[in-house]
Amino acid sequence: MYSTQTPITAFDQYEHLAVLEERIQQDETLSSSLGKDYIITPDIVIGRQPVSDEEINVTTTLMQSDSSLAKLTPLRQMNYAHPRPILHASISCKWILRSDGGKNARTEALNLIRNRKGPLPHVMAVTAEPLPTRLASLAMGTGDLDCVYHIALPELQKAIEEIDNEDQMDMLMTLIRGRRLRDISDLPFDLAL
After folding, report:
1. d(C-alpha 136, C-alpha 113), whole Å
2. Of 3, 21, 168, 183, most Cβ neighbours within 10 A?
3. For position 166, which CATH number holds?
4. What's the Cα-to-Cα distance from 36 to each of 16, 63, 98, 99, 129, rounded to whole Å?
5. Number of domains within the chain
6. CA–CA separation, 191 vs 193, rounded Å?
7. H or E segment at 47?
8. 123 in any annotated domain
9. Checking DSSP bridges between strand 44-48 and strand 181-183, what pairing results, if any?
10. What phi and psi values does residue 149 have, to the nearest 5 degrees?
11. 3-class SS at 6?
12. Domain span holding position 163
């Protein structure tokens, strides 16, 4: 179980950042040059524990304990004396988005992308922002976020229809059809991938 204060350095792909942070704290020149912006504590983290060979071989024998294969993967528990969990997903939560609201979530996403050693976790954001034009500041882009999830997307769509705001509806439909915005009910299914 991970708390809301679990830093990314607790996970296999980012454990090297703890060493880097320690060195930066000890060296003023490094500290003034690099800062600490690469260490983040996401709002929600979902990790996956490494698995034993017994779990791998549950339906058929794939791994022999004496095999020279798959000795470097962090998913195989026996490869490390102290296996670390693997970060499966990082979720940034923003109730609403100010004019720069998407910036923080995007910065977190870019740090996860740039600083990893190993596979990229799912990088997502959840929001209750009522304005599609502000949602676009977070949802549109080059793919630094997998997707943005709205806590009440059908209700938002209905509300915009009722006030008959064509610009906001056009933007909302652009985000939905462009596969950049989904309802929160889609999130657990997307995490299963």
Report:
1. 21
2. 168
3. 3.40.50.10010
4. 14, 41, 24, 25, 29
5. 1
6. 5
7. strand 44-48
8. yes
9. unpaired
10. -115, 130
11. coil
12. 40-48+88-191
Which residue, chain included where needed, has tokens 């500041």? Answer: 137
Mean pLDDT, each 10-residue run in order, the chain (193 residues): 76 90 82 69 91 92 86 92 94 83 81 91 95 91 89 97 95 96 97 90
**Nearest in space to 128 (alpha carbons), one of 138, 116, 119, 114:** 138
Helix (H) or strand (E) holding 158: helix 153-163
Residue with tokens 């709002």: 43
Q: pTM of the prediction? A: 0.86
**Angstrom distance (rounded) from CA 123 to CA 144:** 8
State how far the Cα of 100 lies from the Cα of 103, in Å rounded to an integer.
6
Q: Whole-angstrom Cα distance, residue 174 to residue 70?
A: 43
Side by side, the strands of the sheet bearing 122-127 are 44-48, 86-94, 122-127, 147-150, 181-183
